[in-house]
Write a structure and sequence with these properties.
The protein is an all-beta fold. The radius of gyration is 13 Å and the shape is globular.
C-alpha cells in the first residue's frame, strides 16, 4: 500500500511563495507518475502539475505555468511543488497524487491560503 504525506501548506500574502512536499512511502519505481491537484471550496479537484518518475517530464496547468515548478528527489522519495507569485485564486487544498499502472493513490491534502 502506497502512502502519500503532504507538508508545507500555510497562509501567505499575494505575491509570496510556498513549497509543498509529498513524501512517498516505499520506493517509487520507474512506473510511477506523480502529480499535484487542488480543490477550492465548492469546486472540482483540478490538475496542477505532474511529473514522470522515470524521465522527469513535467506538465502544468495553464493557470500555473511560469509560477509553479514540480520536482522529484529519488533519494528522498519526495515530490515537491514550488509555488511562486501566489494569487488569491490559488487558495485551495492541495493533494499529492500517485499513479502506478492501474493503481491510484491520494494524500490527505494540505491547505494553502493566499490573502490579498
Amino acid at each position: 500500500q502506497v502512502q502519500l504525506v503532504e507538508s508545507g501548506g500555510g497562509e501567505v500574502q499575494a505575491g509570496g511563495s510556498l513549497r509543498l512536499s509529498c513524501l512517498v512511502s516505499g520506493r517509487p519505481d520507474d512506473r510511477y507518475y506523480m502529480a499535484w491537484y487542488r480543490q477550492a471550496p465548492g469546486k472540482d479537484r483540478d490538475f496542477v502539475a505532474g511529473i514522470s518518475w522515470i524521465n522527469g517530464i513535467r506538465t502544468y496547468a495553464d493557470s500555473v505555468k511560469g509560477r509553479f515548478a514540480i520536482s522529484r528527489d529519488s533519494a528522498k522519495n519526495t515530490v515537491d511543488l514550488q509555488m511562486n507569485s501566489l494569487r488569491p485564486e490559488d487558495t485551495a487544498v492541495y493533494y499529492c497524487y500517485a499513479q502506478r499502472v492501474q493503481d491510484e493513490y491520494w494524500g490527505q491534502g494540505t491547505q494553502v491560503t493566499v490573502s490579498s
